Amino acid sequence: MVHRTYEKLAFVSSNRPSAKDALSELVSIYGNVDAANADAIIPLGGDGFMLETFRRYLPLVTKGLPVYGMNKGTVGFLMNKYNPENLNERLANATITPVHPLSMKAEAADGTFKDIAFNEVSVFRQSQQAAHIQLSVDGQVRLEKLVADGVMLSTPVGSTAYNLSAHGPVIPLGADILALTPISAFRPRRWRGALLSGHAKVRFDVLDPEKRPVSASADNSEIQNLISIEIEQDEDTTLTMLFDEDHGLAEKILQEQFAT
Known about the structure:
This protein has 2 domains: 9-100 and 238-257, Probable inorganic polyphosphate/atp-NAD kinase, domain 1 (Rossmann fold); 102-233, Probable inorganic polyphosphate/atp-NAD kinase, domain 2 (Tumour Suppressor Smad4). The chain has 6 helices and 16 strands. The chain has helices spanning 17-30, 47-56, 58-61, 87-92, 162-165, 249-257, and strands spanning 9-13, 40-45, 70-71, 95-99, 102-108, 111-117, 120-125, 131-137, 140-154, 177-187, 194-197, 201-206, 214-218, 221-223, 226-233, 239-243. Strands 5, 6, 7, 8, 9, 10, 11, 12, 13, 14 and 15 form an 11-stranded antiparallel β-sheet that branches. It is elongated. The termini are far apart.
């Protein structure tokens, strides 16, 4: 096996003072190159900044440029612990974790939209009235009318984020499963969501969109006045995340399932 070397690093940081300080420290030790010429991108911030980094450098990361985040934010579930020492060696020994985003095609009152999401695609009521949403999987209607604040489809990576807050299941990496999770469901009151194949194609149709307007979010990108949305895993797009040997993402997710 040929081990990849990580000599040329591209450091980027959020606007947090602690992240800016870390950026200065790391650049003084390792230098800094443009992402187009780098062996890896090193985001410094929290999980939200990691997602921003994916979007900002999408053409590079989808061609194989790995991303190794270090936590200088709040949650940092997708990040490694901050440590400025022996970074080149840690990168060379890191666990390689490939992930696939979701792709969505949405029809809204003012047009059609396409986007991707690394955590989840969610739809949510825009007014004080509950959303009425029809759910279909692989072309078959599975729920005629969900009355709820909303509903989301989550990747394994995103299953520990908003999905978990909505009492959705934590999904191990490699399970090739997506989580379909309601947000504050009113009817059917007992429905708690579903686990779907990673190859499933999911569609949400908004019932009575003028009276009960609904928005859609792909991670932090939002579309107002949704009519319908189709979502599936983008198996042609692969992003490579790097995690320290003793703190891989698969292990983090497993630990989360036993958290008390």
